[in-house]
Amino acid sequence: MQTVDLLLIHAEQLVTCAGGGKPKRGEQMRDAGMIVDGALAVRDGRILAVGTTRDITAQYRAERTINASGKAVIPGLVDCHTHTVYAGNRLDEFEMRIQGRSYMEIMAAGGGIMSTVRATRAMPFEMLYAESRARLDTMLRLGTTTAEIKTGYGLDTETELKILTVITQLAAEHTLTIVPTFLGAHAVPPEYPDAATYAGMVVHEMLPAVTATQTMARQPFFIDVFCEKGVFDVATSRQVLAAGKRAGMGVKAHVDEFVNLGGVTMAVELGAASVDHLDVTPEAELDILGRSGTVGVALPAVNFNLGGTHFANARYLVDAGGILALATDINPGSAPTPSMPMVMAIATRYQKLLPAEALNAATLNAAYAIGLGEQVGSLEVGKQADFLVLDTPDYRAMIYEFGGNLVESVVVRGRLLA
């Protein structure tokens, strides 16, 4: 009998979200990979074995055992699109939206992204780090164990590097697994006459400065762009993303949040890891996405927060065989939520995803959206031992209920967090 560091036994439902080395598509999304009376063996922070309690306890003993009797156990949640590092809030704009002002109207009036840019430029590094770390602590309590974090609230080289340094330090010091994304092309700051001029600066000044701070082979590192009417058109977005790709970065793109410009097709042609938002993507482009290896990331908390009734057509993408992921898009303007369970709750109700589909989208497929599909997102042998013990015997309750927190315990890299 082998000795391991940790055994989890007697899970009422061990929900593995196992993909066998691939993201889930189509009918596979309805399979949550459930094992009744399930168990896990963990050694050196990774999963050594998965099976029934009877099989696992016949082969392994442990220094520490978690008895999950009467509990559901699921993979740690993966938040694959966040803007966690920022300063200030947008409470005034929240009231403006309630009174009928649109997101784009607020941005055109100097609010929106630029409001947060001004606050982030002014905030000292230490305070920015502390506030961002506190947000990650909240996300962890709600079950997120892996997160992508974007820059994009600097829009000048100095502040973008400050934000990236915060992200890098958080990645080194926080419990969460963190993947950085450079989003210098998030908006056009007022000191530039047009998007093309600013994009040139992003490519020729910011990008070399940013890539000099990263060891590309050490972890995934992405470049992103806001491809949208009034921000960066398809040609300019392609220029920015192609430059990042030449520098060795993975490609992501914000597309079709308000106006369809053809950004999905452009990003798929570049081999993007993900295209995110997809709120107004037509079925023809969803079909292109569905045939590709690019993950489509839906961000339903944005639509909910903006008071919208139209959501990305996640149901169509799944049925078209595409790879669907979910994320919070946590940011101070359009999605002030740290909660992946809340995102799943919205997605099941407004995007007609079944609970199993929502969970697979928030775990395994989300991991593939940030280049970590072989490491996190499911409970499979060899993967990082990140999992949640829920205070319910049925994992669907986490999605059925909303406004609370059914996460009883969080285990990251095989370590049970207090």
Summarize this structure briefly.
The chain has 418 residues and is α/β, with parallel strands linked by helices.
Shape: globular
How far the N terminus sits from the C terminus, by CA atoms, comes to 29 Å
Strand content: 15-25%
Largest sheet: 8 strands, mixed
Q: How big is the Rg?
A: 21 Å
* Average of pLDDT: 96
Search tags:
418 residues; eight-stranded mixed β-sheet; 16 strands; eight-stranded parallel β-sheet; single chain; 16 helices
Describe the structure.
The protein is α/β, with parallel strands linked by helices. The protein has 16 helices and 16 strands. It has helices at residues 53-59, 91-98, 103-108, 113-122, 125-141, 157-173, 195-211, 234-246, 263-269, 283-290, 300-305, 314-319, 340-350, 355-361, 364-369, 397-400; strands at 2-15, 34-43, 46-52, 60-67, 72-75, 77-79, 144-150, 177-185, 222-227, 250-255, 274-277, 295-298, 323-326, 387-390, 407-412, 415-416. Strands 1, 2, 3, 4, 5, 14, 15 and 16 form an eight-stranded mixed β-sheet that branches. α8 links the parallel β9 and β10. The radius of gyration is 21 Å and the shape is globular. It starts with a strand and ends with a strand.
